[in-house]
Amino acid sequence: MSANEKYPVQSITQRLLTRVQPRSCTFEIRDSRLIGFILRVYPSGRMTYVCQYARGKRITIARSQDLTPEEARDRAKVFMGQYRKGEDPAAARKKAENIILQDFITRHYKPWVITHRKSGKETVRRLESCFVGLLSKRIVEISPRLIEKWRTGRLKCGIKPATVNRDITTLKAALSKAVEWGFLQTKSLASVKPTKVDDYAKTRYLDRDEEQRLRAALITREGNLRKERLSANCWRMERRYELLPELSSEGFADHLCPMILLSMNTGIRRCELFNLDWSDVNFENRLFRVGGLTAKNGKTRYIPLNEEAMDVLQRWKHQRQETSGLVFPSRDGKSFNNVKKAWSALLNAANIKDFRWHDIRHHFASRLVMAGVDLNTVRELLGHSDIKMTLRYAHLAPEHKAAAVACLIESS
Is the pLDDT at 397 greater than 60, yes or no? Predict the structure, then answer.
């Protein structure tokens, strides 16, 4: 393009954004695909999308780093449509920017996130509980300085940096939608960086002794539940009450033992386990399916069943005498929400500290890596979309690293 060409016309694309060079003065590029859609280039190299919706009437859409050309072009179409309907987009923008965070979440973001994200309800809960002091602020007022002040307060209260990072990521995602939907011009929190955390320090798995204690505690718990059921039926028989079903020694006393054993042998996530259906289990091919609607990353994966996992599911199915529905239904027939009480009591009985249900996945992954399974296979089994996550969850145990460096002495 020539230097004296004030308003060159080109198709505004991502490729153009990477090739255009700033000049000594501001210039504009008009889109060849949509009349009124403009890319404004400043001497500093900063670029913004502009919509000229009428003669002499313009509105800035967003910065080039906040929206793709396609997204910005769509926003321009919306502004032009508003003007054709008799509404001034600039006035509507000013009104939109005055919306407070609580109203934006309730009226706009909540319906969208609940519909499009499996964790939508938890996202809304996190926003409304973690950012109470910001809910009455206009979204245009939520600045990096304000968030840094909020972060400092949270950290001083003892909230873990990783938790604070997740909270900020949740808010940034909501305000990114505000940009996409035209409530804001820029992603004002783009410069807010996460607090550095040591991910590897958090990875927890069971050593051999702990696993043996956990399994022994499961066996003891099963026996105690059977004794309690027998005692309860003796009491009911004396009073001529209807007896409760007997707990056979061949089956499981309740859901907890098969849930834990299946998790230890497959690495299935808790939410995936709670929503596992008998239609997902294929005994003939010795595997089960985690559907995309249930999986965290939205992608279906298949997990093979080893001998213990096969035995657990076959015994549980024979005991339940069910061929359809949830594999582990709660008392009301719906999926479980949590098993915190039973899980906590089991850990206390096994004298295991600092071990969450999710850590069973860490244990599963670590055992595979220590057995020599390659990381990509572990990634596929865990359902990770990025190998970096597998490195975080499946790092080797210290004793195996020590054995590795010991080889240097043995070979000398």
Answer: no
Residue 273 contacts residue 263 (beta carbons within 8 Å): yes
Q: Which residue has the tokens 């002495």?
A: 409
Spatial neighbors of 96 by CB under 8 A, at least 6 apart, are: 182, 183
353 CB-near residues (< 8 Å, 6+ apart): 347
Q: Under a CB-based contact definition with an 8 Å cutoff, are residues 88 and 46 in contact? A: no
Whole-number Å distance between alpha carbons of 190 and 177: 13
Tens digit of each residue's pLDDT (9 = 90 or more) over 292-314: 777 777 788 999 999 999 999 99
What's the token pair of residue 305? 């069943």
Amino acid at the residue 80: M
Tokens 């783009």 identify what position?
190
pLDDT in tens, 152-211: 999 999 999 989 999 999 999 999 999 888 888 788 898 899 988 766 556 788 999 999
Residue 298 φ/ψ region, left for φ over 0, alpha for ψ in the -120 to 50 degree band, beta for the rest: left
Tokens describing residue 42: 């400043």
Residue keyed to tokens 């718990």: 221
pTM (2 d.p.): 0.65
Q: Structural domains in the chain? A: 9-88 (3.30.160.390), 101-197 (1.10.150.130), 208-405 (1.10.443.10)
| Ramachandran bin of 126, using left for φ above 0, alpha for ψ from -120 to 50, beta for the remaining angles | alpha
- pLDDT digit string (tens) for 132-165? 999 999 998 999 999 999 999 999 999 999 899 9
